[in-house]
Amino acid sequence: MFVAPNRRVRYGAAFLCAAVGMVLRFALNRVLGPEDVPFLLAFPAVVSAAWIGGLGPALLCSIVSAVLADYWFFPPAHAFTSLTRPQVVSTFVFLTASCLIGMLGERTRRAISRLSAELVSSLQKESALRSTGEKLRAAEEAQSRLAAIVTSCDDAIISMDLEGTITSWNAAATRMFHFAPDEVVGKSIYLLVPPELHEEERQILETIARGERVDHLETVRLRKGSEPLQVSLSVSAILDRQGRVIGVSKISRDITEDKRTERALRKTELEAAKGRLAATIAHEINNPLEAITNIGYLISRAPELNPDSRELVATLNREVYRVSDITRQALAFYRESAVPSAVSVREVVESVMELFRRRIAQKSVQIQVLHGEDVPRVMVKTGELRQVIANLLANALDAVSQDGRITIRTSATRARVKITVSDNGEGVPRDRRDLMFRPFETTKGDQGTGLGLWVSKGLMEKYGGTILYRSSQDSAYRGTSFMVLLPKPGDASGSGVTHRAVG
To answer: What is the pLDDT of residue 54?
Structure first.
């Protein structure tokens, strides 16, 4: 802007402009002659004075220019009383024109100053708007990034007011709780809380209202349909610009699978401990069994035994050997010394039938044994295969009532040898079928130990065998069927034990 800083400078500039104008006119007058230098040469000085100082300095410059003009240029010099009429008119015209030029210069100066101020103000406003816009864009970008994080987060993020009314709900919350946003936003958080935990939720809200946090609280919440869900909660306060608590932010993480894995790990450790205990007990029982076996052998060698007694002693020795074999199977998970050999499945089945002949007769059970053609031998230990079949037959006898029916069938497929033991008993309850091969789990009450099928599982697993079972309590298909699958010699397929319940 073109405004002089003070009055002295403005009016001093007026004198200076007049003097400079007259000096220039005087110089030109000496070169061109008095008649060739018009009054108009003083007008730039007036305009300059008006531009620098305004209307007052412009008028002062006009008067000073007229006086100097009379003093230097109108003959006779230095005598204002001798001015001719044309000179007076010329001076008057000059002063009038100078006033008009001064006023115009003043207005022009003010207009330019005003425009300059408006331009500066506009530039300042534009700069402020640009800065504000950049801040707004930065805030929008930060808000967009935050919204993207909340949207893509795998944890449920829920915000609510201090009364527990839900105000926001991200996509992970929909996946976790199965509620759409329009089903929960505006409703109470207690929709997700089991009735017995309402007091816990109320205490959480009170804690947050005091400005405190709740970190990693493991509790239970409800999915849509009242399905319980184990979650880990982290809850914090939402603050306004003054630092006052105005809401609650809750992050929920689904730990149901983690808890399930933890329980499974604990159960596995328990079962492993049970297995070690069973092996220890089997080891301790095996010592007296060895003594009983030796005594039975010595009795069988006594010459005074009659044929019936000798047959009973032989049966006793077989059963004692079978009990000893069971104890060895419990130790089979920890040590193994015998070597598998090619065993005839038919011969093993027949030997098991011989052991159970008396029990079968006492219960009046109908047993049908069907042997397929060309059933090859399998590479197992004879005693272990006998133990598995005996365990399955014993379970079938326990399951059927008087005059029940049991079928034992042997056959072969392209790669497997199959041994099937089926009965028409009551069947296994549906809620017990997943426990069939777990140690110390039994459906026989106090009469069972829960070790038979668990031991059988371990025996078959060593040879790449598979045990399948199906059970039904429907009247038309009632009963249970176990199928032992063993690979043919030279076949490496099959790994582990498979349990399957059908019906």
So the answer is: 66
Contact 370, 384 (CB under 8 A): no
Task: Taking each helix axis as running N to C, give the angle between helix 85-152 and helix 43-53, from 0 to 180 degrees, rounded to the nearest 10.
Answer: 40
Contact (CB, 8 A) for 310 and 300: yes
* C-beta of residue 422 within 8 angstroms of C-beta of residue 480: yes
Q: Residue 313 — pLDDT band, cuts 50, 70, 90?
A: confident
Tell me what percent of the residues of the chain surpass a pLDDT of 90: 14
What would the two tokens of residue 406 be?
């049991």
**Of 409, 433, 420, whose CA–CA distance to 500 is shortest?**
433
Boundaries of every domain in the chain: 7-124, 153-254, 257-337, 339-487
| pTM of model > 0.70 | no
Q: Identify whether the C-beta of residue 105 lies closer than 8 Å to the C-beta of residue 56.
A: no
Decide: 428 and 443 in contact? Cβ < 8 Å: yes
Per-residue pLDDT band for 194 (boundaries 50, 70, 90) equals very high
**Residue 65 identity:** S
Residue 416: which of 340, 486, 469, 353 has the closest Cα?
486
Least confident of 85-94, 235-244, 289-298, 344-353: 85-94
In this structure, what DSSP letter does residue 424 have? -
* CATH tag, 339-487: 3.30.565.10
The first and second tokens of residue 396, run together, are: 């079938």
Greater confidence (214 vs 334) lies with: 214
Euclidean distance between CA atoms 231 and 237, whole angstroms: 19
**For helices 55-72 and 43-53, angle between their N-to-C axes, nearest 10 degrees:** 150
C-alpha span between 452 and 447 (Å, rounded): 12
**Do 153-254 and 339-487 have matching folds?**
no
Among 263, 254, 312, 323, smallest CA distance to 287 is for 323
Helix runs in 221-356, H state only: 256-300, 307-331, 345-355
The whole-angstrom separation of Cα 127 and Cα 133 is 10
- Give the per-residue pLDDT at 145: 63
Contact 286, 324 (CB under 8 A): yes
Q: Please compute, for residue 209, the number of CA atoms within 13 A of its CA located in the half-sphere on the CB side.
A: 10
pLDDT band at 19 (very low <50, low <70, confident <90, very high): low
Architecture of domain 153-254: 2-Layer Sandwich (3.30)
Q: Please compute the mean of the pLDDT values over residues 95-107 and round it to a whole number.
A: 66
In this structure, are residues 216 and 252 in contact, taking their beta carbons and an 8 Å threshold? no
Rounded distance, CA 450 to CA 453, Å? Answer: 7
The residue written with tokens 């006898």 in the block is 397
243: left (phi over 0), alpha (psi -120 to 50) or beta: left
